[in-house]
Amino acid sequence: MEDFDYLGDGQVYLDSACQSLRPRPVINAINKYYTEHNSCGERVKYKWGRETDTLVEATREKVLKYLKLKPRKYTVSFTLNTTYGINLILSQIDASKFTKVMTSEIEHNSPFLGTLGFAERTGLPREVMTRNEDGSIDTDAYDFSGAIVVINCASNFDGRKLSNIEEILKAVHRAGGILIIDAAQAMAHSVEVLCGVEVDAICFSAHKLYAPSLGVIVWRDDLLDKLQPWWLGGGMVDDVDRDSFVLSAENKEHRYSRFESGLMAWGEIVGLGAALDWLDGLSKKDWQNLTDNYTELYNFLSESPRVHLVNHEANPTMSFYIEGLDSHLLGEALSREDIMARTGYFCVHYYLDHVLGCPPLMRFSLGLHNRPDDIEKVKKALSKILN
Fold it and tell me: With 150 labelled, which of 7, 70, 173, 177 sits at a CA distance of 20 to 30 A?
């Protein structure tokens, strides 16, 4: 794809689950911010600032449109990353309104450790749920009464999706709980599982969505009633007296400030808006190319007897190990061939190491930048190693 023309010949990047490459329009939008209207958003009246404000507000609108959520119900706030967003919400939840916190076994350490820390701080019990091979959760097996449920809607090691998310949402809400979704791995290539689903909060990282390094919280406005404001700072108040303050978030138009303390990463927010425009402009051929590439690579791995795949089906993200070969050494060998891929447990230590008992793994996570030639090069390199 021409938007990734900076990739050198023979360079193969297979770590999009960590952070995606950025297409030219996103890079250009960031450069334009820094060279044409570098300014503080939501604070100044001069024309550079007005241009920044317009682009930032447009990005909030684009995020809701991308997720098919209604502005009258939801607010978009910007943070550092998914981990920060999840912990920011958990750190301000009024624990007296809930009875437990729940997560699942296949979580990234963001929700897994976040819920562990929450339970230790508040004294509320914590429950770890089992996920099925298709990513679903058996709702009849769990009591969601008064529960704070924090789970992903797409795994970062095999891409399995939360296939019954609507059912889970209904069960949690019927029981008086709330559902917080880690959407870091879903936003780029599996957003359809989340579109229009009115969960209480969605946290994701823009840098996995072909955008700059940035975190986003998309939250229902009624979540505000369950929070205790203590993380406070610049940009969050309309007035401050000696011993009191008035939160800007009391005003619907500035509700986003509830999670935005201090100066925001304005250039990165502008870049996210450009990334969403870029994604919206992609053709069916572009998406089919991604599907063809990951299917071809998955089938190759599936047919290799020494390769042990964690995946149960083809996905842009696939993890595996090769019998008798250390994955870290494999990663170094592939790197010498200009093939960049991740090795280890991918911040899912509990499930991959202690539940499945896997050795450190190799992960291939593809993106829209990958070319058929990339797949052929990887297959050739692996065939050489396997033989």
Answer: 70
